[in-house]
Hints:
- With 250 residues, the chain is an alpha/beta fold.
- The chain has a single domain, classed as Undecaprenyl pyrophosphate synthetase (3-Layer(aba) Sandwich).
- The chain is 44% helix and 14% strand.
- It has ten helices and six strands.
- The chain has helices at 2-6, 24-30, 35-40, 43-56, 75-98, 114-126, 143-159, 170-175, 222-233, 243-247, and strands spanning 16-20, 60-67, 101-106, 133-141, 187-190, 209-212.
- It has a six-stranded parallel sheet, with helices on both faces.
- α5 runs parallel beside α6 (114-126).
- The two termini are 37 Å apart.
- It binds 3-methylbut-3-enyl trihydrogen diphosphate (IPE) (2 copies) and magnesium ion (MG).
- Its EC number is 2.5.1.-.
- Substrate binds at residues 23-27, 35, 39, 67-69, 71, 73, 190, 196-198.
- Keywords: Magnesium, Metal-binding, Transferase.
- Its cofactor is Mg(2+).
- It is an enzyme of class 2 (transferase).
Amino acid sequence: MKEKLHRIDLQNVPNHIAIIxxxxxxxxxxxxxxxxxxxxxxxxxxxxxADTASExxxxxxxxxxxxxxxxxxxxxxxxxxxxxxxxxLKKELPEFQRKNVKINAIGNLTSLPKNAQKVLANVIDAxxxxxxxxxxxxxxxxxxxxxxxxxxxxxxxxxNNEIEIEKINDKIINNHLYTFNLPDVDLMIRTSGEQRISNxxxxxxxxxxxxFTDVLWPDYRKEHLYDAIIDYQNRERRFxxxxxxxxxxx
Length: 250
Ligand code: IPE
Ligand code: IPE
Ligand code: MG
């Protein structure tokens, strides 16, 4: 493991990592357990990933915890996920403070149960001055819903003469997304072998490097994040330019 750490260039760590934490259900099933058992066992992976990212100097870690589409799961599972959210946030708050972690949330948060909204608001407020890493939970999050919401808000401003149509640009759209205070995603990781985006951060991932691993989320540990970052560091991010331009810093 130390060896892997030494292969990471600490000057070139992705500033924003987004993760699709997938495979909890399959992990539980493989152990002959109910799906919810997998969700309950996701916490260690979340903790270890956040700690590792923070140690490496990653500025922003954004975790997909519940999608707009996940509301269509059986009520029992949805309820279990919501109550897990509440207990986890409450339990982890002292740790977030100790580790200087700033908590943030993106998504259609008003659709969450009232108690979850309350705990979330409390944790966000309590950690707002923390500076080591921003840990964002995507909750009731869907990229399309986010974009629709942004368009509505921009349109309202156009109607009220607060924004001129001609002035609408990338930056204005960015500022109306739930992620307005986050930088673009540098590295997107999805666990469990699925190779799709599932309505996650479509706009924000325009130039992200994508990394897929077969590891199921409850098994995700430090070394797996090291692997993803080493892979990321071996890629050339060209942003539309040529390799030669990148080499000569043009
Ligand atoms: C990811 O694991 C967690 C959530 C979507 C809440 P899944 O619950 O999707 O697990 P699989 O994909 O069914 O194994
Ligand atoms: C995406 O996982 C959402 C989260 C990880 C929270 P899903 O398991 O819901 O995605 P699909 O349905 O397999 O695309
Ligand atoms: Mg899944």
